[in-house]
């Protein structure tokens, strides 16, 4: 059973989307598709057909009754549990045997050998036998698993060579969209495409010779082994995580015990301090209260003496009493002032450490953290052979030359920077004539703008350019002419320029890469380098990486985690760079007159252009990502347009 499962795991792609099955559903013809894919297919056909209650299988064209709306019909289709969905990769053992479902309902475990399409249930040998005997189920469609897996594999293979939309034979290839399609698709979806070629015309270019097929198989096997190494490494990491978890749990418990012990000690000491403070203040207040009471008694005695002398006829006695009481009054006042000056409003309170008051938001007693660092690349002895590892999208199809000289040029052209707009207009900086030149997609000259400082160009949006000239960046609007909108002065000279999410990425004369916001304020210093020459940057089409050419090195900076990688480019001198929408990096050697391809990880993919194609001291390259045209400009009046 496990062997059968392993054999089927090679064919886990939906014939419609050609991706791993997601919620696989079986049609009555036993072909399997993703639920969303077959639902979308049924929806399209129900709108096109005169009989909306029927569809045809995308693989075998068998007519199938739907009877209800496509979403409900697709949801009710039986699940194909033989084909593992992506979520199955989360199970402990994806190769575990599949058990009989009727037996499982009575707490028995029997390995299944068949699958009832009608009931959508796995059956063991015994239940299979009874299923065929019962009157209610004898007419059910039952498939032995080995036959079903073989049928699934064949259905995937058949779908590879048929149009996903119309189930017709693939007869054309579109160079603009890099896809195969049938004759009906050519009329419906590819009428505006520039290059539609019959498949037969591509045979000599696209079908690999037997030696390349051999190399491809070897490379696939090597890649499989490399992924096995990664899987082994991931397994070790998972084991390490569990071990670290146990260690951290012990550390947390030890730290908690330590804190509790410290808290207990703190409570004891603090309570003692509170008792001492209250006792001292009580003594002071009691002494002051005694002094007040004694003063009150003395004053009352003086009052009695004065009243007694008042009733006396002895004037001498009254005079003596009044004189002494006057002196005593002064003493009473002094005594009052003394006691009053020492009388305070006592407020006893407890104030915890301010650093501990933010525990609920940012625990200062301790914190569990996870430090993620990139592990070194796994060491292996694998070497890729042959040319098949170079993706077909960067295969050289044709080379055409164009003249970029204009009637107003006084010197030889020297194109050092350029860009392609979304409408395929070409903007170039001619360092020989100090001009920004604008061409249409056929290289017909439209307009120019004079700039007398060496400039770098990048596209900011659909019709706006950023042009770095010295320490100034110009914003230029592009229609059929070039109009300067605004100029912004910067503190340092700009050697390289790129854009990312409405922000400018600038390589400065101080060997720093800075990010500026829409207000042209520095919001991030992305990276600093050692001083070098040939400082140029480019942004990957997806906006995820900055590509830097520093001296003879290729440097990539990940915009997400700011990871930096550096690759030696030994067979290139004085490089300039660009990248396509798939992340493939094009490195152009100005002195070596060649263009070499690298994967996003820095793996050498091969040479695309060399002197035999007419390359001579190239000064600038960039891509039109809409049709994957590579523009190469040289220290002369011609440019090379290659279909890559």
From TrEMBL:
Keywords: Metal-binding, Phosphoprotein, Zinc, Zinc-finger. It comes from the Eukaryota. Residues 95-145, 158-199 form the B box-type domain. GO terms for molecular function: zinc ion binding. Gene3D superfamilies: Classic Zinc Finger (3.30.160.60), TolB, C-terminal domain (2.120.10.30), Zinc/RING finger domain, C3HC4 (zinc finger) (3.30.40.10). Residues 14-61 form the RING-type domain. PANTHER family: BONUS, ISOFORM C-RELATED, MEIOTIC P26, ISOFORM F. This is TRIM56. It comes from Potamilus streckersoni. The lineage of its organism: Eukaryota, Metazoa, Spiralia, Lophotrochozoa, Mollusca.
């Amino acid at each position: 059973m496990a062997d059968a499962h392993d054999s089927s795991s090679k064919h886990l792609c939906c014939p419609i989307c050609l991706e791993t099955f997601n919620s696989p559903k079986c049609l009555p013809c036993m072909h399997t598709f993703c639920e969303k894919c077959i639902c979308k297919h049924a929806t399209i056909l129900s709108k096109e057909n005169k009989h909306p209650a029927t569809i045809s299988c995308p693989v075998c064209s068998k007519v199938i009754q739907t009877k209800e709306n496509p979403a409900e019909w697709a949801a009710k289709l039986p699940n194909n549990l033989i084909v593992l969905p992506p979520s199955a990769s989360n199970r402990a053992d994806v190769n575990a045997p599949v058990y009989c479902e009727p037996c499982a309902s009575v707490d028995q475990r029997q390995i299944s050998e068949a699958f009832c399409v009608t009931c959508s249930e796995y059956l063991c040998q015994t239940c299979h036998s009874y299923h065929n005997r019962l009157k209610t189920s004898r007419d059910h469609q039952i498939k032995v698993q080995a036959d079903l897996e073989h049928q699934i594999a064949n259905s995937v293979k058949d779908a590879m060579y048929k149009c996903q939309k119309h189930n017709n034979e693939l007869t054309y290839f579109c160079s603009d969209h890099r896809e195969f399609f049938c004759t009906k698709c050519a009329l419906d979806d590819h009428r505006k495409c520039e290059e539609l070629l019959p498949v037969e015309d591509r045979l000599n270019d696209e079908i690999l010779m037997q030696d390349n097929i051999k190399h491809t198989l070897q490379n696939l096997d090597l890649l499989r082994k490399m992924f096995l190494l990664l899987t082994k490494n991931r397994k070790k990491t998972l084991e390490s995580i569990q071990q670290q978890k146990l260690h951290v749990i012990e550390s947390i418990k030890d730290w908690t015990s330590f804190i509790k012990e410290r808290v207990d000690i703190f409570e004891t000491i603090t309570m003692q301090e509170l008792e001492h403070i209250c006792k001292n203040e009580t003594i002071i207040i009691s002494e002051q209260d005694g002094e007040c009471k004694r003063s009150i008694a003395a004053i009352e005695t003086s009052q009695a003496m004065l009243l007694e002398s008042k009733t006396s006829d002895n004037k001498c006695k009254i005079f003596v009493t009044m004189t002494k009481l006057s002196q005593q009054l002064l003493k009473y006042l002094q005594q009052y002032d003394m006691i009053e000056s020492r009388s305070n409003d006592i407020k006893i309170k407890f104030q915890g450490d301010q650093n501990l008051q933010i525990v609920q938001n940012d625990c200062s007693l301790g914190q569990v953290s996870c430090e993620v660092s990139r592990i070194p690349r796994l060491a292996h002895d694998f070497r890729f052979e042959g040319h098949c590892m170079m993706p077909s999208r960067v295969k050289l199809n044709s080379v055409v030359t164009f003249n970029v000289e204009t009637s107003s040029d006084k010197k030889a052209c020297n194109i050092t920077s350029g860009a392609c707009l979304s409408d395929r207009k070409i903007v170039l900086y001619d360092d020989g004539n100090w001009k920004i030149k604008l061409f249409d997609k056929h290289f017909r000259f439209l307009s120019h703008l004079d700039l007398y400082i060496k400039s770098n160009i990048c596209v900011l949006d659909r019709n706006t350019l950023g042009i770095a000239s010295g320490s100034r960046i110009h914003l230029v609007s592009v229609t059929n002419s070039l109009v300067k909108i605004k100029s912004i002065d910067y503190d340092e000279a700009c050697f390289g320029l790129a854009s990312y999410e409405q922000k400018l990425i600038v390589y400065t004369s101080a060997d720093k890469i800075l990010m500026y916001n829409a207000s042209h304020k520095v919001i991030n210093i992305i990276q600093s380098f050692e001083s070098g020459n040939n400082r140029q940057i480019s942004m990957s089409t997806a906006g995820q990486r900055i590509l830097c050419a520093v001296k003879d090195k290729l440097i990539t900076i990940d915009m997400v985690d700011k990871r930096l990688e550096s690759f030696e480019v030994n067979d290139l001198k004085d490089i300039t760079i660009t990248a396509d929408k798939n992340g493939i990096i094009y490195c152009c050697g100005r002195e070596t007159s060649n263009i070499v391809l690298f994967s996003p990880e820095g793996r050498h993919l091969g040479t695309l252009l060399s002197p035999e194609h007419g390359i001579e001291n190239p000064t600038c390259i960039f891509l039109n990502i809409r049709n994957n045209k590579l523009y190469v400009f040289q220290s002369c009046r011609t440019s090379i347009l290659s279909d890559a």
